[in-house]
Amino acid sequence: xxxxxxxxxxxxxxxxxxxxxxxxxxxxxxxxxxxxxxxxxxxxxxxxxxxxxxxxxxxxxxxxxxxxxxxxxxxxxxxxxxxxxxxxxxxxxxxxxxxxxxxxxxxxxxxxxxxxxxxxxxxxxxxxxxxxxxxxxxxxxxxxxxxxxxxxxxxxxxxxxxxxxxxxxxxxxxxxxxxxxxxxxxxxxx
Length: 190
Hints:
This is TetR/AcrR family transcriptional regulator. The chain is built from ten helices and no strands. Helix content is 69%, strand content 0%.
């Protein structure tokens, strides 16, 4: 019989909070059981194993970021939309480092297709429509943006920019300006 108050959703939320505290790689069903003061076996009626728990956390993180991104870009276009979208990723990674790491978890094709990752791709393409890119350039640009956002956020999170001036926020603004310029002049670049 399931323990009162424990649900897959509650365990996923607690797992996400734990990921932010101790790191996504350290999240296990055992660690979560310790947090709730229960036996590991009592959680298996809610999550199959640690991989299932991590997948649930990844899906939660993708959904949270997609909701934030949708709110941020609503009514915006061009550079304003690009900047708002990028800032969501950077801010989310700063606020929720474990969840951000979870969002990078490789998902099987069926799970990925049903995840909020699809919304991220749709929003990225919607932003790029403002730059009038056709295929395959639009796909190249989606990959470029994802690489730049994730690379910058990851380097910043690991302290890669903390050893020198100017502040990394200044560099972030310059990176976004450069991306906007590149996207507006894409055809001239190819």
